[in-house]
Backbone:
């Protein structure tokens, strides 16, 4: 693969994601004001002093968007990594062992998936105490059901190949087969799925925060900032749209990259190149 | 293969041979019932197993051991989980979901009012989005890999990435605040005329349409494309069948099942989309009721709403299954 072969849309996506990560990593140096520092009046318009205006408590919106990138990206990424590790491990185990393990895992997965993710999260979060670790775990576990479904389908295709058979015959253990035989051969579709899950995590986290069940104030996160500023909308104050736009832009960027990855995998498979 | 909804043994086999389609549909119905039962266990008992004591949360700061004990016995939490589960399930099946901890009102009564509102909203969103999505999907297949297809592709990719609340507030700012042609908040009440109701739900319905449209359209496009690029369509083309006849006789029967599947899946997604959209538009539906209950940890309401949302979701997925089986005979013989 050469750099020239990457389409423009994918470059835009990569640039957007990189920008968000730069915001997240260097937030204290990039932000002109503190995360929860009140600097001016409530809902000041966009201008020279406050590039994006101020929020419902008079905090600088630009600074909060930059700090918010930190929380949003960290939580979404952590949840995606958990959902991915869990989903891949369970699905590959199921695909390699077949039999009773496969049946039990898959039926349980079907059961989990028969409740809409958001509804499930609402029910669970109604009971559990509110803290960051639990939020990440809930998001990760609920989302791992999708990874499981894809992972199992992909792994089943590979598990019947001759080299897996050969590994089994020469007496390799189950873990070896999972990590050394199946994983490297399924990396391409899984990479695209990782991006897709990451985009979903960002949107899901923002939705939970918007509903008041995600990250708790005063920490800045993009979904929560929309919730904080939503009352301004009726007065024509667009402060809520700034963090909303940031979420949308980041999700679009991730999807652009995923779209390219998916096209690449499908053309590798030698299809007719339509889908 | 075991059947849940018919007697076992010889008569069952006879029944299956005489009415294979009916037997399959009955099997799906039975499966969904089992699934729903399992979901109810998960929602009730699974939640009980999680850490966090209701009574302590319920009382908050004033949780002396004596008060906690009082509240536990008052809410019936001191009895074993299984007893409470069967009691809850039995009552729920008769349409009684108990009383709310927060407001002491009947949960069923509240849900009765709000479920209608939510269905009203979802129905009109579906009425607009389904035909639109299928039409756009067809347009995009027709112009495959040319400018209109690429434009639709980029726009729909962007639309998928937009959170529901962003679309909602964007529409509010533009149509309700700047242009003043729509109403916000979307208040509906009893005795409101049908036209007023329609006007009130215009913006929330539009938001929902935008949310599901892109998904549905992309999936429709993929479904039609996979049919169009199959071997039998190539054969039809090579044997000189006209494009129209090839589509009517060969493509359409095979495309119905995936398209219906796409529609049902997205309607199921609509059920969830309703939650966020209702909160954005302050619309008195099930979603808002549930979110409010979650914030105050009002468990009877949360469990009731969760079960109803899951029931709709399972029902729609089951419908998709059954329609797919009826439309495509090949699915009647599972491998």
Residues:
């Amino acid at each position: 693969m050469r750099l020239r072969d990457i389409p423009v849309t994918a470059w835009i996506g990569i640039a957007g994601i990189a920008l968000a990560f730069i915001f997240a990593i260097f937030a204290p140096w990039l932000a002109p004001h503190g995360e929860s520092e009140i600097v001016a009046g409530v809902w000041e318009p966009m201008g020279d002093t406050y590039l994006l205006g101020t929020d419902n408590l008079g905090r600088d919106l630009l600074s909060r968007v930059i700090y918010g990138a930190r929380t949003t990206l960290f939580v979404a990424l952590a949840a995606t990594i958990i959902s991915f590790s869990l989903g891949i491990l369970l699905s590959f185990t199921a695909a390699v062992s077949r039999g009773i393990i496969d049946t039990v895992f898959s039926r349980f997965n079907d059961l989990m998936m028969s409740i809409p993710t958001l509804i499930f999260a609402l029910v669970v979060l109604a009971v559990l105490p509110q803290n960051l670790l639990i939020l990440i775990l809930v998001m990760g576990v609920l989302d791992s059901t999708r990874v499981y479904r894809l992972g199992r389908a992909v792994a089943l295709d590979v598990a019947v190949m001759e080299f897996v058979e050969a590994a089994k015959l020469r007496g390799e253990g189950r873990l070896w087969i999972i990590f050394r035989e199946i994983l490297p051969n399924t990396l391409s579709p899984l990479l695209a799925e990782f991006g897709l899950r990451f985009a979903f995590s960002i949107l899901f986290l923002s939705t939970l925060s918007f509903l008041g069940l995600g990250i708790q104030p005063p920490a800045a996160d993009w979904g929560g900032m929309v919730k904080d500023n939503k009352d301004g909308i009726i007065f024509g104050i667009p402060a809520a749209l700034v963090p909303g736009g940031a979420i949308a832009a980041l999700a679009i960027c991730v999807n652009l990259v995923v779209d390219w990855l998916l096209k690449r995998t499908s053309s590798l498979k030698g299809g007719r190149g339509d889908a | 293969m075991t059947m849940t909804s018919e007697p076992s043994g010889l008569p069952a086999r006879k029944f299956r041979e005489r009415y294979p389609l009916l037997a399959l549909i009955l099997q799906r119905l039975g499966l969904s019932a089992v699934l729903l039962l399992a979901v109810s266990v998960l929602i009730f008992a699974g939640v009980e197993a999680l850490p966090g004591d209701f009574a302590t949360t319920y009382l908050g700061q004033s949780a002396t051991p004596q008060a906690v004990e009082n509240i536990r016995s008052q809410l019936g939490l001191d009895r074993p989980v299984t007893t409470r589960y069967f009691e809850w399930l039995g009552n729920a099946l008769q349409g009684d979901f108990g009383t709310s901890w927060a407001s002491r009102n009947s949960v069923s009564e509240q849900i009765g009012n709000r479920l209608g509102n939510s269905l009203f909203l979802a129905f009109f969103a579906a009425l607009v989005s389904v035909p639109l999505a299928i039409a756009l999907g067809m347009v995009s297949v027709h112009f495959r890999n040319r400018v209109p297809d690429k434009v639709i592709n980029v726009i729909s990719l962007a639309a998928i990435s937009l959170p529901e609340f962003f679309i909602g507030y964007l529409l509010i700012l533009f149509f309700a605040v700047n242009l003043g042609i729509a109403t916000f908040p979307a208040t509906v009440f009893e005795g409101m005329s049908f036209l007023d109701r329609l006007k009130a739900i215009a913006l929330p319905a539009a938001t929902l349409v935008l949310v599901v449209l892109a998904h549905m359209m992309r999936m429709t496009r993929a479904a039609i494309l996979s049919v169009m690029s199959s071997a039998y369509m190539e054969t039809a083309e090579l044997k000189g069948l006209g494009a129209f006849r090839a589509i009517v006789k060969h493509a359409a029967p095979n495309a119905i099942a995936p398209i219906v599947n796409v529609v049902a899946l997205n309607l199921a997604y609509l059920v969830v989309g309703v939650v966020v959209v209702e909160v954005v538009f302050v619309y008195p539906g099930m979603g808002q009721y549930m979110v409010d209950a979650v914030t105050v940890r009002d468990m009877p309401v949360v469990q009731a709403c969760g079960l109803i949302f899951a029931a709709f979701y399972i029902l729609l997925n089951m419908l998709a299954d059954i329609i797919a089986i009826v439309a495509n005979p090949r699915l009647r013989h599972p491998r």
